[in-house]
Amino acid sequence: MRREADVGSGKPPIAVFYGGAHFGGLLGWNMNWVLHSVRLSLHSSGLRLGPPVRWMSLLTPVWEARFDELVSIWETGRRFNPGIRFVTRDGAAVTFWGSQRCLEQVAAGLRACGVEWLGDDGVPTEVSYSRT
After folding, report:
1. Pairing of strands 70-76, 63-66
2. Structural domain harbouring 58
């Protein structure tokens, strides 16, 4: 599953995090990547999940979304397999997994980019985005 959006414009990311991911695929196909096999990059206008190193690009899909495309974000699996789920207007979704500390840093990075949400432990919430 590949989803592209203009998030980086060739500029380096603001912050980078490493973890795993669950990509919801087409026709019921779901794909999981284990910890440290996915890189989450925060850019000023959006986020990108993809391979952590170039040689993994054939195995790990790329998923990008601009912040203004996100309709909900929520935390999942607080105790077992914690993650943050991102859903876009067109229904594309991905869950980024990591340690609780990593996810707290991702949340802080998103808030620094102007993205706010109140979701907690599986409760989807609307996203508020204000360009800073």
Report:
1. unpaired
2. 15-129
Contact 85, 94 (CB under 8 A): yes
CATH of residue 55: 2.30.29.30
Give the integer Cα–Cα distance in Å for 23 and 29.
9
Look up residue 3 and give its DSSP letter: B
Is the residue at 63 inside a domain? yes
Output the pTM of the full model: 0.79
Instruction: Give the mean pLDDT of 5-10.
Output: 70
pLDDT digits (tens, 9 = 90+) for 87-112: 888 888 888 988 888 888 998 899 88
CA–CA separation, 58 and 126 (whole Å): 33
Strand order in the sheet with 93-97: 63-66, 46-50, 30-42, 15-24, 93-97, 83-88, 70-76, 125-126
Q: What is the CA radius of gyration of the chain?
A: 13
- The one-letter code for the residue type at 103 is L
